[in-house]
Amino acid sequence: MATSSYCATANGAELYKHCASNSRLIGFNSRNRSSKLFLTRTSDFRGVKRYFHVKSVSSEPKQKVQDPVTEEGAESVLSSFAPDAASVASSIRYHAEFTPLFSPERFEPPKAFFATAQSVRDSLLINWNATYDFYEKMNMKQAYYLSMEFLQGRALLNAIGNLELTGSYAEALKNLGHNLENVASQEPDAALGNGGLGRLASCFLDSLATLNYPAWGYGLRYKYGLFKQQITKDGQEEVAEDWLELGSPWEIVRNDVSYPIKFYGKVTTGSDGKRYWIGGEDIKAVAYDVPIPGYKTKTTINLRLWSTQVPSADFDLSAFNSGEHTKACEAQANAEKICYILYPGDGSVEGKILRLKQQYTLCSASLQDIIARFERRSGDRIKWEEFPEKVAVQMNDTHPTLCIPELMRILIDLKGLSWKEAWNITKRTVAYTNHTVLPEALEKWSYELMEKLLPRHVEIIQMIDEELVHEIISKYGSLELDKLEEKLAAMRILENFDLPSSVADLFSKPERLVDADTETVEVSDKVEVVTNDEEDKNEDDTGKKTSVKPEPGAKDIDKKTTVVPEPVVIPPKMVRMANLCVVGGHAVNGVAEIHSDIVKEEVFNEFYELWPEKFQNKTNGVTPRRWIRFCNPPLSSIITKWTGTEDWVLNTEKLAELQQFADNEDLQIEWREAKRSNKIKAVSFLKEKTGYSVIPDAMFDIQVKRIHEYKRQLLNIFGIVYRYKKMKEMTAAERKAKYVPRVCIFGGKAFATYVQAKRIVKFITDVGATINHDPEIGDLLKVIFVPDYNVSVAELLIPASDLSEHISTAGMEASGTSNMKFAMNGCIQIGTLDGANVEIREEVGEENFFLFGAQAHEIAGLRKERAEGKFVPDERFEEVKEFVRSGAFGSYNYDDLIGSLEGNEGFGRADYFLVGKDFPSYIECQEKVDEAYRDQRRWTKMSILNTAGSSKFSSDRTIREYAKDIWNIEPVKLP
C-alpha cells in the first residue's frame, strides 16, 4: 500500500507524513495505539493563528511500511488498534486544516462534519486498500452488483458504528465543542436512488462486506439525483438535488481508471471478416470509489460510481473564441448530462436516448473494468473459459440488461472469441433479479432508437433472438402452428418482427384461390372496385381478391363504387429487455415467495416451462446494523439486555429469544419507554419540517414509500377522510370514546411526469391542511405529509412508528423492504397479502398482523367483474367520494382523481387497483387497530413479537443465499 503524504506550508514548506498509520488496518476491540502521528494545531479553532507542530503519540521507532499481502508483512500490517478520543481529535484537527473545504476562521458544524468524515475515511481507506490487495493476490471469484440505484443514506454514523468507533468520535467531538449527532446531521443524503430498489442494493453491500464476501457494487454518480421534493399549496414541486454542491468526503476519484464509451456510428465488416463499430460519439467514464465497511470486520468493499466526461481536446477552442460558446461546449455538455439526473423524463425522444445512454454507460464501463481486472489477475495465462469461474454479474432489475450484448461484443469483437464461446461465457456469468410484475416496468426499447444509438448491440440482440427462436422450435416443434406462433410471440426478445428467414418457411401458408373475374384499379389513395353483373368483389387485408356479394336491396345504379381503405396500423418494433435478461442469464430470481411464484406462473411462464432450473426465489432483506442497531439505540439496548448478548446484530436469529419475554411486564415497560422516546424525537422533527404540532401519545400511523397508484396511498387517505367525516358527525364525547388519537404520516416522491401520483400528493396535503386546523378534532387526528422523504427521514420515523401501512393491490408489490424495517423496529403492520407481507405475517404470527383485502389469485376475476359492469361499490366508499366533491378540502377540482375510480373500462378509469373493492375491508380492519391500541399490554406484546419474528428479513440471510445459489462465491476473511 502506498502511504499518503501531506504538505504543511505554514512557516516553511516542510513535508509531513500524515499518520493514520497506513501500515496498519483499523481493527476492533484492541487498545494498541502504536506508531501514530497526527498534525495538531496549538491555537483555538476560532482564532486565526496557524502554527503547527507534529505530535507523536508513540515512543516506538518508525517502521518500514510493508506490503499487506506478503507473508512477512501480513501480521504486522493487519494488526488491529482502536484510536482513542485524543487520537481521533488530532485527526479531525488535521483535516480541518489540511484538507479543508471551508475557510479557516471558524469550526462550525458543516466544517466539523467534513473534517470528521475525512478522518473516518482515512481509516476506511487503510482497510479498503488491504481488502483490494488481498483480493488481487488471492484471485478468488468475485461478485459484481450492477444497479441504477444505490440509496446509501448518511454514511458517517454507519461507518463509525461498523468500525466500533462511535464512542471515540463522540468524545472527540465533544472535546472539540460539538455533538456527534448534530455533526452527523450536516451530511446530505447521497442522491443516488429513489426507493426500495436502491435501498436494497445498499443493504446488500453492507451485508457483503460484513460477511466478508468478495464483491463490488457498480452504479452512476448522479450530480442532481432524482429531485428534491418541496410541498407547496399546489402539491409537489421538484427542484434539483444539491448533495454534491459542497463535495462528498467519502468518494475518491480515480483519474487513472477511465474507459471509452461509444454511441451512434456504424458497423462495418473488415477485410478479416470481423465486425467493427466505428465513428459516432465518444465519451469516457471516470471512476469514483466509495468505501463500504463491514461490521466488526476489516473487510471494506467498494461502490464504484461512474461519471461521464470528454477529453479536453474535444473542447472547440476556435468556436469559443469565435463567439460560438454553446457549440464549443457541446461535446462536454452531451457527456456530462448522462450523469445529471436519475431517471430523466422519457416523454421525449431526447429523454429516451438519455436514459438508454445511462444504462449503456453503466454496463459498458463496469464490464470493461471487470474484464480489465480479470486479465490483470490472470497474468500471462488468460483463459476466457474461466471467466465465469472468476466473475459473477448480477443485474438489479432490467436497467443493466445491456450487460448481455455488451459482454458478447467485447468478447467477440475485441477479444477474438467465437460466437459459441462468447455466448457460453455470457450465460454462465450473468444473472437477473426481477423486481416487478407491472407491465410498464418490464422495459421495452424502441428498436429504431436502439439501432441508431447502439448499432452493434442490435446486431447481437438479433442473433440472440434468432438462436432463441430455434431453441423454441426445437422444444415445441410438435405444437400446432398457431400455438407455436403464440409461444414465439410471447417469448421472443424482438417484438413485432417477422420470423428469421432461417425458419420462415416453416410457417408459410398455402396460397388462396383467386376469382379471375375481379379487377381493381388503384387511383391516388382510393381504390375503385370494378364488379361484374353477378356480384361485387373486394380485396381482403392480405391483398388477395375475394368475392363480396351486394347488400340485399342495394341500388344497382352502376357497378362502380369508391372504397376508402382503413389506415393500416403498423405496431412499433421493440426490444423486450426482460426477455433478454431471462434468455442471457443463468438465473432469474424474484424477491419474495409470492412474487417468485407470480414470475414463474404469469410473468415468465413460457420461459419457466422451457428452463425451470433458472428460476429461484430470494426474499429481500435489510441490514440490521443501520435499521436497528444504529437508527434505534434505545431498542437496541433493550434487545441486548434481554437476549444477553449483542450477537443479534450479526445473527438475527437471536431476536427470536424475545418471544419468551413478550408478556413480561418489565420488558413491556422498557419497550414502551423506548418507543415514546423515539416518538418525542419525531415530534420535534415534524414540527421543524412541516410546522404541525402533534402529541407523542397518539398512535403514529405511517405510510412512507414511492407515490404510486398500486401502492394505494389513495386508499389510506380515503380511509382518513371517512374517519374525519364520521368524527364530524359525532359529539366530542362520542369521538373520544370511538377513536384513539392518530397521527397519520405520509412520505414519498411522485415521479415528476406521473400526473395521477402528483394529484394524490396534492390531495393528501389538502386533507391535512383541513383536518389539522379543525379545532373540533384537535389532537384526535392529524395528517402530515413529510417533504423530501429519504433514508435519513426513515431512520427517524421508523423507530417512532406504531402502525405501518403496506396496502398495495395484492400481487403487484414484488416484495417491499420498508415493511421489514418497520417489523424489526416493533411496528405492527396493516396490509394485504402482497410481496413480503405474506412471509412477515407467517413469521410474526397472524394475530400480530392486521390483514385485509382481496388476495392475488382473485384480482383478475375482480377486474373482469368490473369490466362487465357487475361491481357494486360500498355505500361508504361513495359517501367519501361525494364528501370530497363537496369541496370539504378546498376548491381544487378532484374530478380527474376520483374519476380514475369510476367507470368500468378505459385507461385511467375503472379502478384498476381496486381501491373501491378493498375499501370496506380496509376501514373495518382499521376499527380493529383502534381496539387493539386501546389495550397497551396487548399492543406492546404484538410489537415485541414483530421484532422477535423479523430475523428472517436480514439482508445477511439474503446475501448468503445469493452467494450459494447464484454467484457461487465464498467468504474470504482478511488475515
UniProtKB/TrEMBL annotation:
It comes from the Eukaryota. The modification N6-(pyridoxal phosphate)lysine is found at residue 821. InterPro entries: Glycg_phsphrylas, Glyco_trans_35, Pyridoxal_P_attach_site. Pfam families: Phosphorylase (PF00343). Its EC number is 2.4.1.1. Its main location: plastid. GO terms for molecular function: glycogen phosphorylase activity; pyridoxal phosphate binding. It catalyses: [(1->4)-alpha-D-glucosyl](n) + phosphate = [(1->4)-alpha-D-glucosyl](n-1) + alpha-D-glucose 1-phosphate. The keyword Transit peptide applies. The keyword tRNA processing does not apply. One of its GO terms (biological process) is glycogen catabolic process. GO terms for cellular component: amyloplast; chloroplast. Keywords: Allosteric enzyme, Amyloplast, Carbohydrate metabolism, Chloroplast, Glycosyltransferase, Plastid, Pyridoxal phosphate, Transferase, Transit peptide. Residues 525-558 are annotated as: Disordered. Its cofactor is pyridoxal 5'-phosphate. It is found in: Plastid, Amyloplast; Plastid, Chloroplast. Phosphorylase is an important allosteric enzyme in carbohydrate metabolism. Enzymes from different sources differ in their regulatory mechanisms and in their natural substrates. However, all known phosphorylases share catalytic and structural properties. Belongs to the glycogen phosphorylase family. PANTHER family: ALPHA-GLUCAN PHOSPHORYLASE 1, GLYCOGEN PHOSPHORYLASE. This is Alpha-1,4 glucan phosphorylase. The gene is PHSL1.
